[in-house]
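INSTRUCTION: Work out how this chain folds

Token vocabulary: learned, describes local backbone geometry

RECORD BEGINS BELOW THIS LINE
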Amino acid sequence: MIENYETVAETAKRWGISTRAVIALCARNRVPGATKFGNKMWMIPAGIPKPEDKRIKSTNKEGYWIENIITSCRDCDLIEACLDDEKKCKTAVQTRTYSCSKCSHERRFDDTSSLPNFCENCGTRLIGIKASKQN
């Protein structure tokens, strides 16, 4: 048509996207040198590369909170020792920590209703809780 310019259809085929997507990119001034003729027709400089996609992409990463239960004593800081019947100290408490199944980022929460849906460290969407495997 016009020398050194392509139609929307030619550009769409070369970029591998729809003609509507090319028109939207031109209308948002994302295609340098694109020119609009009349009310509808866009002409795009030949050979121009496709603009970078600036939409937010989902990471499609999903994981779980791994629940770790640690039993310790408030008085003597011994782990598991205060559960023994022969010991005098009986102030054992269980502490629950939760770690991301993808990056192992650990957090302590008082109850599971306050667990966030995303790991603030790696951005993984956390869709549930699994108990840790005890050795």
Q: What stands out?
A: The chain has a mean pLDDT of 75. The first helix runs from residue 8 to 15.
